[in-house]
Design goal:
- The chain is mainly alpha-helical.
- The protein is 79% helix and 3% strand.
- It has eight helices and two strands, in the order βααβαααααα.
- α1 packs antiparallel against α2.
- About 3% of the residues have low confidence.
Length: 188
């Protein structure tokens, strides 16, 4: 039997297209800015637009085997023809709902992590939140030991601080807490 395939765009193609448009917009918007101002957005936008374009191409050219699209396995109730198998099918459909809810909970965790990172940037500042967030992410999400999470967070912070603050002299805004501490020190 020959394996025929049909073109079916992957739902992720919409996300890839949206990200590509976002990064192209960043490039167009930031192109006229002064060199020092546009350095960081361009440093991010060019490689990310290339990656988003590659992912979009991959999502759009993905092919699904025709047999996999057309062939749906018969249910156990159809095969057995009795009530016990129908109960098994009901349980399986409830389990599938559980899988969908598990996918939703993973998305909720990811969104919560992103929101926590943005709140951390607002509260502590960009450079200051990097070791804190990285440590907690590596420890609790990636299940790394504490010593490895702290070591990797320190290395990432040193790289970011050394490249952007010391070498490129990019000013990052400080967080609310850092501003409060500076104002309290300035008053005394």
């Amino acid at each position: 039997m020959s394996s025929r395939s049909v073109w079916k765009p992957h739902p992720q193609a919409f996300l890839s297209a949206a990200l590509l448009l976002l990064f192209v917009y960043m490039i167009i918007e930031g192109w006229g800015w002064p060199d020092k101002t546009k350095l960081f957005p361009m440093f991010v936008a060019f490689p990310m637009s290339a990656l988003a374009a590659l992912q979009l191409i991959r999502d759009l050219t993905r092919r699904v085997a025709l047999e996999a699209v057309a062939a749906q396995p018969p249910s156990t109730a159809e095969l057995a023809g009795d009530g016990a198998a129908a109960e098994v099918d009901k349980k399986a459909s409830r389990d599938e709902g559980g899988l969908a809810n598990a996918g939703f909970s993973k998305i909720a965790v990811i969104v919560a992590q992103m929101l926590a990172y943005f709140v951390g940037i607002w509260v502590l500042g960009f450079v200051e939140v990097i070791p804190v967030f990285t440590t907690f992410y590596l420890r609790f999400a990636a299940k790394e030991p504490w010593w490895r999470a702290i070591l990797q967070a320190a290395l990432i912070w040193a790289f970011t601080w050394g490249l952007f603050v010391q070498t490129l002299h990019l000013p990052f805004t400080s967080g609310v807490v850092v501003d409060l501490i500076k104002s309290l020190i300035a008053v005394q």
